[in-house]
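Hey everyone, long-time lurker, first post.

I ran two proteins through the pipeline my lab uses and got sequence/structure pairs for each. Pasting them in order. The first:
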Amino acid sequence: MPAAFSADEKARIKGLLMESGRRLFTTRGLRKTSLEDLVAPAAIAKSSFYQFFDSKEALYLELMTDRMTEVRRATVDDALLSAPGTREGLRRFLHATVDVLTTDPLYSRLMTHPEEMAAVSRRHDPESVTGVPGNPVTALFDFVAEKRGEGALVAADPAVIVGVLQAVLLLPMNADRLASPEHYPQVLDLLVDVVAAGLAPERV
């Protein structure tokens, strides 16, 4: 029979599970993290884990949704939507997202390992991932679709435009593969400028 925990114990244990999940998912990934690994810092049995989360994928999802609001604020509200025009908005979005990816190991993991997000979606309603109000990817798609409809972006499928933006975000994870890695900051700045200008040929 699972142990009974007081409200204070539940809050403390959930905090420990969230912290161990954040650390282990970042360093090992979802597949290589076991329930034993997750519960060890909290000193609870594996069976007790299910009093807090339905699965390790549910823990992963909660960690992700917890970060989404802050990431959306930094990349969408304060960058993409705060600019005077579409081109500048794309530039600010890309730079802000690169900043998040290079300073937040968990979010970098979430965004650069789509197979883990697919595993979460298989265990949970996909809407629980895509439908989160703070989801910055959904907000980006909405922005691109709106600006594409206004003629402020090139005549390409919105999914293709978002794909191009996502391709830029792969650069920080591959900076060491550049012919001259020491020029990474300049390469990033020029790439962002070229992509933003190419996707939004005219300032709006």
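...and the second, right after it:
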Amino acid sequence: MRSIGVSNFPLAQLEEIIGATGVVPMIHQLELHPYFQQRELRAFHQSNGILTQAWGPLGQGRSDLLENPVITAIAKEHDATPAQVVLAWHLGRDIVAIPKSVTPSRIVENLAAVEPRLTDVELERIDALDRADGRAGRDPADSGH
């Protein structure tokens, strides 16, 4: 095996798999969006050469993210949609983001997210949206017991 990818590993498990096998995953897919930025994991990824891939990059269907005044204001400044701005934030932070859609018009809209070039100030404004209660999905570290 030349490379592996993992999904939803908490930091301790990621460190454990690397320590036990000596293999550093090439990519780690995890819930990540402006309301839940996983900064500690992203820093670990960066220092270990691991690509970060977001699942639920648009907030897992959270309409409140796409209606956030910071996101909508930046969208207006760029003549873009809020979804395009959120995807542009991912790109600006070197996060692989593949939003799910089966609607042709949304797929075209998502692909156009490469067009808005967010400034450092705009990226920082979106960075400030990170919240302790931002997780939309289930915590993978919670075994459910």
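Reply from user beta_strand_b:
Welcome! Quick read of the second one: The longest helix spans residues 11-21. The longest strand covers residues 27-31.
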